[in-house]
Specification:
Elements: H1 3-6, E1 9-16, H2 18-26, E2 35-38, E3 41-49, H3 66-106
Antiparallel strand pairs: 1-3, 2-3
Length: 107
């Protein structure tokens, strides 16, 4: 499923104080199944996720800076435009060769 790429992790229960439990219970925007009380204490749901970053992610990461992000964009532009120009040159060369063959074979 596509959403799993964005929401990798799992739910866990975190113990909270009785005052916080009462405050959450009074809050009508929190569903009842997100908080619970039992013999061991009061708990609320907590979303635990693995810190998984994409290799091109530069925001708020150790060893990554704004300057590095700008340099990566410049390199990407060079790489992309270089690739496109190379492909265009190959296609143009093939087209010229085809026209050349047709022109000289027909005459």
């Amino acid at each position: 499923m596509v959403l799993n790429l964005f929401f990798e992790g799992s739910w866990s229960w975190v113990q909270i104080s009785k005052e916080e439990y009462e405050k959450l219970k009074a809050n009508r925007t929190i569903p009842n199944n997100d908080i619970k009380i039992n013999k061991k204490g009061q708990f609320k749901k907590h979303w635990s996720y693995a810190t998984k970053f994409h290799s091109s992610s530069y925001g708020f990461r150790p060893g990554r800076s704004t300057h590095g992000a700008l340099q990566a964009i410049k390199n990407w532009k060079k790489t992309l435009f270089g690739f496109l120009i190379t492909m265009f040159e190959k296609r143009l060369t093939m087209l010229i060769e085809d026209v050349y063959e047709i022109f000289f074979y027909l005459t």
